[in-house]
Specification:
signal; 7 helices; about 1050 residues; single chain; Integrin subunit alpha 6; Integrin_alpha; Immunoglobulin-like; about 5% helix; 67 strands; transmembrane helix; glycoprotein; mainly beta
């Protein structure tokens, strides 16, 4: 049994096809319009691997090498599907790729090539160098056609010459690169070696490095072999020691997908030519933790110098299954003691099953001379998150990798962001190397490629470009493989090849830096000086100079420029204060555009445009900005041709898109720094308005708060005084007044005081009168003062209104920090215009005769003299139903202190617009037997009313001063239900003759009826508070009355 190394690939192709989210990002200099697309046969996985290659001999050719590991077999391979390698010319044709013929033979007794996946990886040594390509599923056969027949998936690699041929005279060329062959079999050793899943050349072209992730129970190894000819004493080097083949020296777990790393020179292909004694790795164990089985060491490879030490070669290999999360191991070759690659550092994966180390790239991003490391983790995710893959950028800290905190770049959900990472060179020629990141499952499996620029800080985390989306090309898995850092179209810019199992090549466009300058003449606007007729005009001058990073490129450049005024102001919905007089037919009033031809680099060219100031502008404080933007003109090819199109240069994305300038107004009332710092203050006073005249006396106050007493008054006024003392001019000065729902704007009156203003204050209210905007002047001059009145309607005040709160906010475009909201508050009292008058008929009565008990009386007349008390209530204001209900409460002196009758109430009658029911209605003789408790209970009944008017009697007996001083009184309540105008209440009563006879020794008696007004709840009051009627009663002098004595009204 053997571990089928296609399983991880199958998982990629069948298990990660999900919809994703994406963000649009503008392109930079990889030309996404003139894409060189190369198509292969369906089902061959054409584009699974890609490499850019340059041949120098016998002719200078640049080409694209594409692996198709499921391509059909050649005629002599004895199989159906073997895979292959294709060469594509750099043309606009999509179908001009040709298969490179090699490996076209088979020995069926010792090998098996069906489904070997030739082309699973391909790499170029560089201009004029070798090419390596591998078939990691190549099988060795033993004991063919016998019961003991077995097969080992050892893998195999081919090295080709620069012209894509196999030189028979070269020991390096050919397919003898199979270092696992002839070694101990079985999956725990080299029986499932799978050499060639990754392969690369070192940056100095000295070695070729192979990954064999299936070795040692899928621990994996790396093998480093000398490549340069003429060197016979260097290597090969291998993880686990090439001479010992010791799995315990492989510093990753089994099933890590690191396997064997084998590094050797290309001077001899025999891995066993040199044997050196090695020792178990005991150093650096603190830096490089052991990695166990199934780590897949060797799954990805890259190399570089100055990674852990200056001048030292380091092999960087990914083990995407190490410790179930992945790892990247940094190896060095042990030259003096062994043929071993020993681990110096291990970069550990961040999350479970993230496949950290699936691909790696070595690149100096910040140009500090130390190589940085980029690691793909395409299956990284966060629970309930939108992340689908990540790339970790390790910025080298002078070889101290244990001190590095990586920068994490995240992809969109289910995108497999980081499946491929590539050093693509300096594509924008800013002297910093850049990287490309493939996300082949982005956008529902169509795929995308992201470009990130290097910088002095390491890497710019915002993508400079999403060069293309697979959905635009109607292809899948775009970005599955990447290859760059070579100039294909001879414009001095490195280009990028993107494998998508349907390949495409992106060529880099020349990067142009255009210096843009803009200025306005004159530097200040003097509103008193007309410069063009009756208007004020300005001149805008724009100048351009271009530079190109590649010294060999200096074309004539046609640029389009655009001048634009007050863009931010217009975004806020406000009109521009200026109009361009120099403009094209398609330009709007605030724009001026045109084209210029720059003849060569570093030659300055200028143009001008006229600008006119609009009439009657309000904002004379803020400067007027003008922005200048530029683009490069060019035509795009409409028809595919075999030759490459001329690429239109592109602007440097690291430069700002726009530059700007501004012109200020000449400000006379401002400081020497040309900044206006105003000192606005507001004061207020509540007033009432005299009828039919603009006279505004101040309202009275209570405890320091103004009191609005409402009767029939409809309007009040708020006196507002605004000052600008000891400050600069206040430009666009205004006051915004906000009113509560109980008040609404009615009108305003202006009173000019202090320094003369250019114009009166103008107040404009909104539709419902809840806010007024008062223009104070533009500018409101320094040391100015103005007073005006805002007249407010009180129609919205109701019974529940106890106070009003008006907000006053000063605003200006001048500088002032203390412009806080001022609250103008006043207390509200509703005043009822009720008048009560009373009369007693007759005003004088007499008593006399004999004392007679209550039980002996048979008729009303026997009680005593008749007295009618008449109360007239007059309402001079609003109907009471507007506020609620009211009542007239009368304190009736029924008995004296010893329980004797005083005034006996016979009947209550009313007249007016509505009948007024009073209670208790009367006494009546028939109720004399009523118990004292029941009568007192009736007298103590209370009723709840909104407000009351109390009438009471004063008896000027020596023994009886009032109801609260001896007399026993009963309260008579007369509700004033919706009283509109007036009503009369008449109380018919009898003076209790016997009681006054019994106390006749006291002499003359008299009494008075008085009333006052009180209100409830707070906020209601009466216009008239006190009234009084006087009457007097006396005995008939000199008569000892035997009976009832007639009374005479006086």
């Amino acid at each position: 049994m053997f571990n089928d190394m296609t399983l991880p690939w199958k998982a990629i192709f069948t298990g990660i096809l999900c919809l994703t989210q994406f963000t649009r990002i503008s392109a930079f200099n990889l030309d996404a319009h003139n894409v060189l697309r190369k198509d292969g046969e369906a089902g061959t996985l054409f584009g699974f691997s890609v490499a850019l290659h340059r041949q120098l001999k016998p002719a200078d050719r640049r080409m694209l090498l594409i692996g198709a590991p499921r391509a059909k077999a050649l005629s002599n391979q004895g199989a159906n599907i073997t895979g292959g390698l294709y060469s594509c010319e750099i043309t606009a044709l999509s179908n001009d790729c040709k298969r490179i013929v090699f490996d076209n033979e088979v020995d069926m007794k010792s090998e098996y090539k069906e489904d070997q996946w030739m082309g699973v990886t391909v790499d170029s040594q560089g201009p004029g160098g070798k090419i390596v390509t591998c078939a990691h599923r190549y099988q060795r056969r033993l004991f063919v056609n016998t019961p003991q027949e077995s097969r080992d998936i050892t893998g195999r690699c081919y090295v080709l010459s620069e012209d894509l041929s196999i030189d028979a005279l070269s020991d390096e060329d050919g397919g003898n690169w199979k270092f696992c062959e002839g070694r101990a079999r079985g999956h725990e050793r080299f029986g499932s070696c799978q050499q060639g899943l990754s392969a690369t050349f070192t940056k100095d072209y000295h070695y070729v490095v192979f990954g064999a992730p299936g070795a040692y129970n899928w621990k994996g190894i790396a093998n480093n072999t000398l490549l340069d000819q003429g060197i016979y004493d260097d290597g090969p080097y291998e993880v686990g020691d090439e001479s010992q083949l010791n799995p315990d020296l492989v510093p990753v777990p089994a099933n890590s997908y690191l396997g064997v790393l084998f590094m050797t020179t290309l001077s001899d292909a025999s891995p066993d030519q040199f044997v050196y004694k090695s020792y178990p790795l005991q150093v650096n164990l603190e830096k490089a933790l052991d990695v166990v089985a199934n780590s897949y060491l060797g799954f990805s490879l890259d190399t570089g110098y100055n990674i852990t030490k200056k001048g030292q070669l380091t092999v960087v290999s990914g083990a995407p299954r190490a410790n179930h999360s992945g790892a990247v191991v940094l190896f060095k070759k042990e030259v003096t003691v062994s043929n071993m690659l020993s681990a110096e550092y291990i970069l550990e994966g961040p999350g479970l099953a993230s496949s950290f180390g699936y691909d790696v790239a070595v690149v100096d991003l910040n140009k500090d001379g130390w190589q940085d490391i980029v690691v793909g983790a395409p299956q990284f995710f966060l629970k309930d998150g939108e992340i689908g893959g990540a790339v970790y950028v390790y910025i080298n800290q002078m070889g101290k990798w244990d001190q590095v905190n990586p920068i994490q770049l995240n992809g969109s959900k289910d995108s497999m962001f980081g499946l491929a990472v590539e050093n693509i060179g300096d594509i924008n020629q800013d002297s910093f190397s850049d990287i490309a990141v493939g996300a082949p499952y982005d956008e529902g499996g169509a795929g995308r490629v992201y470009i990130y620029h290097g910088s002095v800080s390491g890497i710019l985390t915002k993508p400079a470009q999403v060069i293309l989306k697979g959905v635009d090309l109607n292809i899948k898995l775009f970005g599955y493989s990447l290859s760059g850092n070579m100039d294909l179209d001879r414009n001095s810019y490195p280009d990028l090849a993107v494998g998508s199992l349907s390949d495409a090549v992106f060529v880099s466009r020349p990067v142009i830096s255009i210096k843009k300058d803009v200025k306005i003449i004159p530097k200040q606007i003097d509103l008193t000086k007309k410069t063009c007729g009756n208007n004020i005009c300005l001149t805008v001058e724009a100048c351009f100079t271009y530079t190109e990073n590649s010294k060999s490129y200096s074309p004539k450049l046609t640029i389009a420029y655009l001048l634009e005024a007050e863009s931010e102001r217009r975004k806020l919905g406000m009109p521009s204060r200026v109009t361009f007089l120099t403009k094209s037919r398609t330009d709007q009033d605030f724009q001026s555009s045109g084209t210029l031809e720059l003849q060569r680099p570093n030659k300055k060219l200028c143009t001008t445009a006229q600008l006119r100031l609009q009439d009657n502008i309000k904002d004379k404080l803020r400067s007027i900005p003008v922005e200048l933007s530029v683009s490069i003109q060019g035509t795009r090819r409409k028809k595919r041709q075999s030759s490459l199109p001329d690429l239109v240069p592109i602007l440097n994305s690291n430069q700002p898109n726009k530059v700007g300038t501004e012109v200020n107004f000449l400000k006379e009332g401002c400081g020497i720094d040309n900044i206006c710092q105003s000192n606005l203050e507001v004061e207020y006073k509540f007033c009432y308005r005299e009828p039919n005249q603009d006279v505004f006396p101040a309202l009275p106050s209570e405890n320091g708060m103004p009191v609005i007493s409402l009767s029939d008054q409809k309007d009040i006024a708020l006196e507002v005084t605004v000052k600008n003392m000891n400050g600069d001019d206040a430009h666009e000065a205004r006051l915004v007044a906000q009113f509560p729902s109980s008040l609404s704007f009615s009108a305003f009156r202006f009173l000019k005081t202090g320094v003369s203003l250019d114009k009166h204050v103008i107040c404009v209210a909104n539709q419902n009168g809840s806010q007024a905007d008062c223009d104070l002047g533009n500018p409101f001059k320094r040391n100015s003062e103005t007073t005006f009145y805002i007249i407010l309607s009180t129609a919205g005040i109701s019974l529940n209104t106890t106070e009003v709160d008006i907000g006053l906010q000063l605003e200006t475009t001048s500088e002032q920090e203390n412009l806080s909201l001022v609250k103008a508050k006043a207390k509200v009292v509703i005043e009822l215009l009720l008048s009560v008058t009373g009369v007693a008929k007759p005003s004088q009565v007499f008593f006399g005769g004999d004392v007679k008990g209550e039980s002996a009386m048979k008729s009303e007349e026997e009680i005593g003299s008749l007295i009618n008390y008449e109360f007239r209530i007059i309402n001079l204001g609003k109907p009471l139903k507007s506020f609620g209900t009211a009542s007239l409460n009368i304190q009736w002196p029924k008995e004296n202190a010893v329980g004797k009758w005083l005034l006996y109430l016979v009947r209550i009658s009313t007249s007016g617009l509505e009948e007024i029911p009073c209670y208790p209605e009367r006494n009546g003789l028939c109720s004399s037997s009523m118990s004292r408790r029941k009568r007192e209970a009736e007298e103590e009944k209370e009723s709840s009313w909104s407000f009351e008017m109390i009438v009471f009697f004063f008896f000027f007996f020596l023994f009886l001063q009032s109801c609260n001083n001896g007399a026993r009184c009963v309260e008579i309540k007369c509700p004033l239900q919706g009283l509109d105008s007036n009503a009369v209440i008449v109380l018919r009563s009898r003076l209790w003759n016997s009681t006054f006879l019994e106390f006749s020794y006291l002499g003359r008696r008299g009494g008075a009826v008085g009333w006052t007004g009180s209100c409830s709840p707070v906020g209601l009051g009466f216009k008239s508070h006190l009234g009084c009627l006087v009457m007097d009663w006396r005995p008939v002098l000199g008569v000892s009355p035997p009976g009832l004595t007639p009374c005479v009204a006086g």
